[in-house]
Amino acid sequence: MDIVASAPGIYLGWGAFTIQLGNLIVIVVMLVLFALALLLPFPKARRRR
Amino acid sequence: MSGPLAPDGQDEEVYTWTGRVRRWLLRRLPPQKLLPQDQPSYVSSWIYAFGMASLAAFAVVILSGLVLSLNGPAWYHVSSLGHFTNSVHLWSVELFFLLMVVHLWGKYWMAAWRGGRVLTWITGVIAFAVSIAAAFTGYLLQTNFDSQWIAFEGKDALNAVGIGAWFNVADLGQMFTWHIVLLPIGVGAIVVLHVLLVRVHGVVPPIDATEEDDQVVHAYNESEGPR
Question: How far is A37 from chain B (nearest CA, A)?
Answer without folding.
Answer: 5
